Amino acid sequence: MIVFKTLRKHTLSHQIAIGEQRRWKKKLVESAQTRLENRTRDSKLDKLATKLKTLKTILSIHQLLSTRKRGPFVSVQLMSRWKNILGLNVHMGKFIHKYPHVFHVFTHPLKRNFCCKLTARMKYLLDLEDSVIKQCEFDAVSRIKKLLLISQNGSLHVHALRLIRRELGLPEDFRESILGKYSSDFRLVDLEIVELANRDENLGDAAVEKWRENEYEEKWLSEFEVKFAFPINFPTGFEIGKGFREKLKNWQRLPYIKPYERKQNSVRVRTCGGIERFEKRAVGIIHELLSLTVEKMVEVERLVHFRKDLAMEINVRELLLKHPGIFYISTKGSTQTVFLREAYSKGCLVEPNPVYDVRRKMLDLILLGCRNTRELQHEEDIKEQSDNGVGKIHEGGTGDGDWVIPILESSQNGNSDDNFGQICSLFEEDFDSCSEQSSSESEHAFRGDLN
To answer: N or C: which end of the chain has fewer CB within 10 A?
Structure first.
């Protein structure tokens, strides 16, 4: 009997201790970070973000190569110093070796070390992108006008536009070629703020309005159901909880001030439903901004720079995570990129444009990897022979020693430094048959960089 009472006393004390632990246990707070970690992933958009990260790295290498004064090539040894600048986690030699359709590695004619330059295909696509952007100049002007119409005071910081220059399809010198050229439409204030000179009311239609018209005409929905609605497209495997459909239906019907309406200051957050209407207005602004981009996506970090100009004093990332059917944030590629879900299908843009088509061709060239390299080498040989007039002896081309003549001529004219890069690229094939011992040493060094 005494043992039973003792056990009962210990059991009661243990239950009281457990009750105290449960009472003082903190509840998990659902924050933007937890929502980001627990969100339903979209594998196709994640794969696309990873590929775009590789394309971004290659474009950064091209920018570094274009700054070289001696020629459009650089030694692999020097490129290895760019690893930290580009944020690569592999050796530069391995990265170059993975994309032979983008980078052409050759032996330097004099120093006998390995050098790298962009292939003819990649150069062609880069030049094609610049020409297409120039042809679509009026579209770029229209995008900037719409952004200024959305802004609170009809003005934007030039720095913010520069951050999303590539996303908007603007040329690198857009400040002079667009803002300065179209002075009747734009006005620069203090050289860092651009204002809208005249307001064009014909541009005040949001992209989502077209979808609403189709829903109203094709599905015969009432105006009350469609007037303030957004297209919803949840990722595969998204779990719909209890009461979620009803909340979503009420949110779709919730009226809000649209992006191009000039009643932005009349939103009262403290009124009944004011917070929901204010957040829905921010969703409409971000939706329209993503619709104005070329590839319907932008980095979240760069999107934050428009908070003040567009009157979105909210946590942008948390707002995006609240609406997984409209936006998708991908964390692949060491950055957070937000995609407009309705604009993509199976990892491709539903309505492509000329700038997107060129960039997609660049991406396809990268995805080739090491495939079709024999055909690539054959094309490089034909191009070098046709452009430079250098062939092989049994084909009726130039003989051994003919490459010395242009070097001597350039040195006599005093332009050896200016023509050095051109001569090196012209006669690199003939030098491959000379100095076998030196070539083997340089190949051993290059393989060491690969390892």
So the answer is: N
Residue 144 token pair: 């900037």
**Listed residue (72, 71, 70, 96) closest to 82, CA to CA:** 96
Q: What is the 3-state secondary structure of 279-306?
A: HHHHHHHHHHHHHHCCCCEEEHHHHHHH
Token pair 């944030």 is found at 329
Name the residue type at position 390. Answer: V
Q: Which two tokens stand for residue 100?
A: 């032979």
Q: Is the pLDDT of residue 11 over 80?
A: no
What are the angstrom distances between the C-alpha of 159 and each of 164, 194, 309, 313? 9, 10, 12, 19
Q: So what's the pLDDT on residue 223?
A: 82
pTM for this one? Answer: 0.76
Alpha carbon distance 291, 259 (integer Å)? 12
Tell how far CA 157 is from the center of its chain.
21
- Count CA within 13 A, CB hemisphere, residue 443: 7
What are the tokens at 448? 């060491």
Give me the amino acid identity at 260: Y
Task: Tell how far CA 205 is from the center of its chain.
Answer: 26
Burial 394-408, CB ≥16 within 10 A → b, else e: eeeebeeeebeeebe
CA distances from 87 to 76, 95, 302, 397 (A): 17, 12, 19, 45
Closest by CA to 399, choosing from 384, 407, 389, 410, is 389
What whole-number distance in Å separates Cα of residue 263 and Cα of residue 152?
A: 10
Segment holding 425, helix H or strand E:
helix 416-426
For residues 28, 31, 34, 38, the Cα torsion angle rounded to the nearest 10 degrees is 100
Mean pLDDT of the chain: 78
3 state SS of 253: helix
**Which residues 6+ apart lie within 8 Å of 291 measured at CB?**
206, 207, 208, 340, 343
Average pLDDT, integer, range 148-153: 90
Separation of alpha carbons 437 and 48, rounded Å: 44
CB 390 within 8 A of CB 429: yes
